[in-house]
Structure formats: structure tokens, C-alpha cells
Amino acid sequence: MNEVEISLFPIPGSVSLPFTVVPLHVFEPRYRKMINDSIEQKRRIGVAHTKREISPGHSDLSDEERLNRNQESYEAYPVFSAGFAEVLETLPDGRMIIQIEMDSRYEMIEEIQEVPYKIVRCRPYPDDEAMEEPVEQLREELDRTLLRLPVPNVEKLRSYLESDEWKSQSAAQYSFSIYSLVIFDAEVLQNVLELRSTFERISFLTDALSNPISN
């Protein structure tokens, strides 16, 4: 599989799934530079949940000092989603409002740059075709399960689940986008991100909704 270089944005508690658009408010100088460099060089940006803090940040540094020393504070999970960034707005003080359209999952192989921001070499993290099973019936059952939950605006949810936009998704798209309709903590979503088949992802949510006490 082809390896790619990806700019890495580690954000504690943030797990981004493929086929989602992730909005970000970017204020640190090193990450503003990362956004501009990545767009100019047509390099994907990955948003990764973090395992632990490595070192605290230094709020007393100047912008130049922040760009010329290792400010990395967190160890990122090696599997994350990535995509190309678009700047929606640059504020007068330099802060940026961006969005990243996550196109796929990647697995980190090695770090090739630390300062002023991380660049990592990655390989794609595809599903394992040998693990796939038919999901049409599971998909229909999961939609029905969601409509039985005690959620507000259930008719709005029903309309969405019956829309052409929802029903036209591929099985792979569905197996990720369904998680936009429920709330799980970051550790659970990281586990979902690393599952290797549409069947596993749909089954995981079906089981979780059937046994909510285990969540």
C-alpha cells in the first residue's frame, strides 16, 4: 500500500471518523503554519485523539519561540482519520476557522518532523475484506432501533433516516456516519475507528444500543 506524509493535529478527546467534515478553530501559531503549509503543499491533515500528555505547554513563549521548539504535549493514537483542509475565515488576529473533509483512515508508521508541528509517514488503514458479512438486514434493524430510543425530535430523525441522502450511502459510509447520531466518549469512538469491517462497526453499535448499561 502507498505510504503518505500527513500533518498531525493531536487533540485530546477528538476522534474523527471518515466521511465527516470536521470544523476547527485554530489559534496556535504552529498549527496556523501547519494549515497554511499543508494547503500549499496539498498534504492531508490528520486529527488524532491522544493517549497521554507528554509535557505541558509553555504559555510564556513568544510566537517565534513556539515555532522553533518542540511544543508537542501529547502522544497521539496511531490510527486516525485525515483529509484536506479548507480555510473558511482568517480573523484579524490571525486565528483561523477551517474545516477538514476526512476522506479515509491512516496508521502512523513513523514521525519524520517534530518542529514546529508533526509530520508523520502513514499507510492507509483499510477494512479487511475477509471480515465482511452482509449488513443490509443489520442496517435496517439499526435504523429501527434508533427510532425506538427516547430521543427528542424523533419525527425529524425519522425523516432523516428515510431520506434519499441517508439511504443512498454505501455500507462503509453508513457504518461510520451512523455514529454521528449517538454520543460515545472518545475511547469508545477510537475503538470504533480501529474496527476493520462495516459488519463490525454496525454490530458494535447495535449491541451497544441493545445493552446501554455496558456503555
Description of the structure:
The chain has two domains: 4-124, LON domain-like (Archaeosine Trna-guanine Transglycosylase, Chain: A, domain 4, Roll); 129-214. The strands form two sheets. It has a five-stranded mixed beta barrel. Strands 4-5 form a two-stranded antiparallel ribbon. It is of the alpha+beta class. Helix 6 (171-177) runs parallel beside helix 8 (198-210). It has eight helices and eight strands; from the N terminus they run E-E-H-E-E-H-E-E-E-E-H-H-H-H-H-H. The mean pLDDT is 90. Strand 6 and strand 7 form a beta hairpin. It is globular. 33% of the residues lie in helices and 28% in strands.
Overall residue-averaged pLDDT value: 90
Radius of gyration: 19 Å
Strand arrangement in the largest pleated sheet? 1-3-6-7-8
CATH superfamily of the largest domain: LON domain-like
Count of separate structural domains = 2
Task: Using the coordinates above, name the CATH class of the largest domain.
Answer: Mainly Beta
Strand fraction band? 25-35%
SSE succession: EEHEEHEEEEHHHHHH
Which terms would index this structure?
two-stranded antiparallel sheet; 2 domains; 28% strand; alpha+beta; 5-stranded mixed barrel; 8 helices
List the helices and strands and how they pair.
Blueprint (H helix, E strand, L loop, with lengths): L3 E7 L10 E6 L2 H12 L4 E4 L1 E4 L9 H5 L6 E3 L2 E12 L5 E18 L4 E7 L11 H13 L5 H8 L2 H4 L3 H7 L8 H9 L3 H13 L5
Parallel strand pairs: 1-3
Antiparallel strand pairs: 1-8, 2-7, 3-6, 4-5, 6-7, 7-8
